[in-house]
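User: I'm writing a tutorial on reading structure tokens. Could you give me a worked example: one chain, its sequence, then its tokens, then a sentence or two explaining what the tokens reveal?
Assistant: Sure. Here is the example chain.
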Amino acid sequence: MNSIQKKILVLVLTVLFIMAAIWISLTHYNQKMQNQYNEILERYLIMNEVTSDSQQIVTTLNNYLIEPTEANLKALHLGEIKIQRTTDEVSKFRNVDNDYALTNYENLIDSLLETMNQSVLARTEQQTEDYLSAFSEASRISKYISEMTLTLIDTEIKTYERFYRSIIERSEKLRILGFWLLLLITLLLLLLAHWFSKRITRPVIKLTEAAQELSMGRFDLKIEVDSDDEISFLAKMFDKMRININNYLSEIKQKAQLEHELQQSKLLLQESQLHSLQSQINPHFLYNTLDILSKKAYLEGSEETSDLLVSVAGLLRYNLNKLENSAALFEEVQVLKQYIDIQYARFTDRLHFHMEIDESCLGVKIPRLTLQPIIENAVIHAIEPNEDGGIISFCVKDGIDHVRIEMEDNGPGMTEEKIKQILQVNNNKGEGHFTGIGINNVVKRLNLFYNRNDVFDMESSPGKGTKVILKIPKTRRVDGNEATPHRG
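And here are its predicted structure tokens:
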């Protein structure tokens, strides 16, 4: 199957190759002409520099003759070195046409330097007439050098006149060639773009028409696209989807009928469950009975038994409230204390419970039955199986934007896999003995209540106990009313 990507890649590579070849050719040709231009220009500049150097050295010689100081003599030597270096550069441009003129040119420069040295020597020996005569000769030679420079430049211009004409002709031809190449590439690209767009848009149009038919509910028309790329595969998958949708519609109709029958069965089941619940013992009657028993035990002098019955009754009364209702953290802590009192009566010295509470944090709102199921889970797994008992710590701290509640035990701990199993959405294991509410239920209610998923966290590892951390946002507070503990 030829993919669309492959077609686009071939098209792009073809265009890039043509453009790159043209660009490389033009660049090479332009660079070649530029190098030739630079070479000619360098010839003219060096020759002109010889004239300038000869005039400068005559001026420096005149300064020395007037004032024969060490500085002027040094400047004269530097000028001599410079003109010799420039003369060496001129010698590199020797060819058949300028060989004779260039030889005379070099001789003139040598004569200038020789005359200059004679003038310096005569000035040193205080031979005034001789050094003035030598200086005049040097000035005359400098003028000859200037005239010879013009002659050489004129010779160079005549030599390269044909070269200039050829460059102009080639530039004109190159301009015409570039124009036709640009026109040819443009036409080629237009043809390729037209062919390529037709290859893609034709099957796409067919798919669009088929989609319109499907949008009108006609799922019985077969979708056919003549192509050998991804669009053909897309059309086949689209047709398969049409068949599946048609089958799904039939299944939905059947399921709708089954769901209607199932709903009728659920209504009957709920009605039977309602009758079953109505036949159970009224929990309020049980609470009132426990209240009477606690008072009777208190009157008989059994204060410990009375307190235990009060804790059981308070816990039962708190559980009678709907889970949908929220409570202040203060209420949850009071219920937790009642639950711990019951467990103290059960485990005696085996249970060690440490509590550390920041009283300023007890006003935040929290779902009912949040703390007690978590502590109950710690009792079940950390205290019950251990003959020596265990330690449970409960701590409430004030954070920046939340209240931090930590519940930790020194039980056997668990693995990361076990933690994931406990927190699974459909996991109903690990329910408490007293409330029948598991950790998973607490987590789901916390997430729903605060509309966020970072409220509950659990840390544990085998042999190192388990730690549950609640980060309760400070968004709901009790409006100035502090809840009070209830005693039967």
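What the tokens reveal: The CA atoms of residues 127 and 242 lie 119 Å apart. Confidence is low (pLDDT under 50) at residues 272-281, 477-488.
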